[in-house]
Amino acid sequence: MTKRRYNFNPGPAALPLEVLEEAQEQFVDFQETGISLLEMSHRSRTIEDLNQETQQLLLSLLGLPNGYEVLFMGGGASTQFALLPLNFLNTNQTANYVLTGSFSEKAYKEASYVGLTHIAASSKDQQWRSIPELSADQLAPDSAYTHITMNNTIEGSRYNKIPEVGSTPLVADMTSEILSRKLDLERFSMIYAGAQKNLGPAGVTVAIIREDWLEKASKTIPEIMRYETFAKNKSLFNTPPVHAIYMMHLVLKWVVNKGGVEQLEELNRIKSALIYDVIDHSEGFYKGIIEVNNRSHMNITWRMANEGIERQFIEESEANGFEGLAGHRSVGGLRASAYNAVPLEACQALADFMVDFARRNG
Ligand SMILES: *Cc1c(COP(=O)(O)O)cnc(C)c1O
After folding, report:
1. Mean per-residue pLDDT for 151-172?
2. Which of 168, 189, 187 is closest to 94 using CA atoms?
């Protein structure tokens, strides 16, 4: 077998090796049907069952009861930035957005094309170093919803708890942290996530919407853009990204085998602490960027005191088997994305490499 690298890619990101191997084994002849999943009708019983099972498994892993629709859509999380206001931002109402990083800004911008928007809070002035406080009195009166980005992939920050928004429907982009920690998701009217960080490969996007809120969605936009269309048809209105859904199914079963979200949360805490500890004990060689309380356990970001050696750090890390440690092109610096599928050993190896690099270059 080829040696696997320590994969800290921000997305598409690491998948569990067991999942890749199982998919490989099933690739040509899916469950002894004599054809590949890629060649199978999405109207077949096999795909219908797979679709249903995957929706149920996701709800149960997230701890959500009945009363929610799980939709499998295309277009990535970025398409949700537009579909959310198209479905739920009626004329005369205002949508609240909390700006905590560049993906939240993109979501806000798309909504601005659709209707009235209000920036309820922002940490842009602090270069996104923290998550701003939010309370119900910062929201527009009679607002359609409040949108937050639960984990900021590029900046490396996260909400440490779900904010209070009174009676406004709360919507969260959970792309880079879904299934990574236990949260009371019943507080949300809708959550969504592109799959390619914690759920599977690129190609499928999950939207989970409370049924009573879904009833309020627009009935005048084109059908293909309506959440209702996907809900009514169990995400089989048109051809879904079948193989991506299958891969997600395997990832979800892997999460079950790992002991579910609670176990992964604990593991993620340990994994991220290994790297944050090196940063905090490096006597300023490495500098954390995000306020300690809001540090992400998925995307760990830092800079070098001497920015001139960041490139050298990246090159040496690559030569030593690490992948994906450069910060996002818009912010620079370094970032290790330690999603659910990144093993503890990879984080330990990175921590060791960082200590060694600091010793040699400090
Ligand atoms: C990656 C990411 C996106 C963009 O996802 P696409 O699937 O590329 O559209 C949006 N929001 C967050 C929080 C992300 O991490």
Report:
1. 96
2. 168
